[in-house]
Amino acid sequence: MEHPQPSSVSQDLSEALKEATKEVHTQAENAEFMRNFQKGQVTREGFKLVMASLYHVYKALEEEIERNKGNPVYAPLYFPEELHRGPALERDMAFWYGPRWQEAVPYTQATERYVRRLHEVGRREPELLVAHTYTRYLGDLSGGQVLKKIAQKALDLPGSGEGLAFFTFPNIASATKFKQLYRSRMNSLEMTPEVRERAIEEAKTSFLLNIQLFEELQELLTRKAEAQSPVQAQGPRRRAGSGTQGPTPTETPRGKPQPSVLSQAPLLRWVLTLSFLVATVAMGLYAM
Ligand code: HEM
């Protein structure tokens, strides 16, 4: 039987991070956007949005990594050839948004919040940068690989990997071995107990910033689907992160009985009632 590790200073940082983020990891996996994704219910629209957010996030993250590559609080984790996603994401942006992608890539509020925090950490608390690189890169090398296969199938993308460069790490032969190396480098960082505690908290914050991003994207997709198809998309409103099951926003439930138009359109109901009253009064006046 597995026993939880004591969260003491003697515990390796890699173990402490894994243990401390277990709960938020489950929360991230269960965000509606991610749950749908795992079921293969991802649309091109949703995928484009999440990739655009990741483009901004990695741009900020890798800018801060470059700023701190010589700083001993980060230097042992500097693996640009193996890890950096910037160039791959630029190729993905061109694939999804076309040659003028720089003008077309959306930048949502939750993405902006995440980017702001990354710059704050990189500039003012670089000793916490490890929390953000851990959350993103080790995640990409773990569950990210499953998501790649799901997206390829669901979006019917070419086997050549076009549009999915982000998920491909050509300079990492074995993700498992690389993650081991990365963990040992994290464990080699010199940290006071106080910094270590803050780094652990920052990793949880990093997960929460990701979760907020998924929730916002889901909300955007749901709202857009409702605007495009109000009759089908209304009904009990599915809020992002509400934990309710349901089809993805752009799916159109086929073959299901639709609620009557009147019960779905209060304005139309009012107009018809008013017309009926006016007609009744007019007929009364005519009869007099
Ligand atoms: C559908 C969503 C996800 C699935 C299916 C998934 C799945 C996994 C799996 C199978 C592992 C390997 C566990 C192990 O080797 O012990 C893992 C590790 C990890 N995941 Fe996720 N994940 C998801 C979402 C996320 C998200 C959104 C993040 C953060 C943004 C994330 C960050 C991580 C990290 C940092 C690790 C490494 C843990 C460690 O070894 O310390 N994951 N994930």
UniProtKB/TrEMBL annotation:
GO terms for biological process: heme catabolic process; heme oxidation; host-mediated suppression of viral transcription; negative regulation of viral life cycle; response to oxidative stress. It is a single-pass type IV membrane protein. It holds the Pfam family Heme_oxygenase. Residues 1-13 have a biased composition (Polar residues). It is found in: Endoplasmic reticulum membrane. It comes from the Eukaryota. Signal peptide: none annotated. SUPFAM superfamilies: Heme oxygenase-like. Its EC number is 1.14.14.18. Keywords: Endoplasmic reticulum, Heme, Iron, Membrane, Metal-binding, Oxidoreductase, Transmembrane, Transmembrane helix. It catalyses: heme b + 3 reduced [NADPH--hemoprotein reductase] + 3 O2 = biliverdin IXalpha + CO + Fe(2+) + 3 oxidized [NADPH--hemoprotein reductase] + 3 H2O + H(+). Catalyzes the oxidative cleavage of heme at the alpha-methene bridge carbon, released as carbon monoxide (CO), to generate biliverdin IXalpha, while releasing the central heme iron chelate as ferrous iron. Affords protection against programmed cell death and this cytoprotective effect relies on its ability to catabolize free heme and prevent it from sensitizing cells to undergo apoptosis. This is Heme oxygenase 1.
